[in-house]
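Note to self: user wants both folds in one dump. Writing first protein now.
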Amino acid sequence: MGQTIEAATYSLGRGILREALEMSNTAEEVGARLIAFLPNLRRFAISLCGSRDLADDLVQAACERALANAGRFEPGTRFDAWMFRILRNLWIDQVRRQKTAGVRVDIVEQPDIVGASGERDAEARLILKTVAEAIAQLPDEHREVLLLVCVEELSYREAADILGIPIGTVMSRLARARKNLAEAAGITMPAARSVAVKDAEE
């Protein structure tokens, strides 16, 4: 059995901190923020490549790229959006190099839902598995938007910047993703917020 998310994140974190301490103060600050952000970054990487091992390699490459370009991070902007953009660009480069297509969500990577007593709730796990399987069936571009907006809680504008597409395209892809997900999983999705409301919250 492979590493758990926590173990893999801890392993990645140690290496990043070690590298950051050997660099400038700016890189050290970015490295410290990276460690706290690793679970989110790894979750996004898994959604892109569908493999824990590949996701770890992708996260490591993204962290190295971020540390090497720490001086380019603009204070006052969202660190998570900057990192998601770096990681996605690396993934696109990798796909182009390997001439591969298609991604999947590794269902076993979905986080466990734990009840108040500390024991897993069987019904909650079943729902989670159903939703994860439905997400895995979404087109790649719909899955990306769903994760960035609904899971990582980025604004439409931030998601558009990361994906390199217009805000209107983000909204239409998200609407289709939510509709397809609801139909596949048999769930009711909450109403989407307007772009003005979503961006005003950031």
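First done. Writing the second protein, which came from a different request thread.
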Amino acid sequence: MSEWSSRAVFVDQCRSVVQGYPRFNATIYDGDTAVLDLILTAKKDLIGSIAVTVFCMGIVCVFFIYSRTGVLIVTFTISSICFTLVGSLSWWGADMDPVTIVDVLIATGFSVDYTAHIAYKYYKLNGDPAERIKQSLREMCSPMLQHFLEQA
């Protein structure tokens, strides 16, 4: 079996069969058990991590952005990015292995960072809303672009 997800399901099925015969005191050994167990729980863990991230960022934004609308926009943006990212991975047929989970969590962190900084800058500025958007994007795009290029 060359697919890690297939191996993980196979080892789990073998464990289920062995559990049906406790009198033999048999165990299933695979040197990659730690990774295979991670693969089996990856989807559930990823969804939980994203939900906690969105919830915590909503709470943090309440303290720094003194506008319900701003908090809702940031929370909606983060949720939208997360659902789009996970949906795209599913659509592409990507396996949810530990490396993919780390990549998704890093991408979620970037989206949280970018949207929170732009929204915070917007609500700190005074004046016309269109001018505030221009100014916050003007001030935040350069650091965000530098950060992106460092990570690439």
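Dump finished. Worth passing along: The mean pLDDT is 85.
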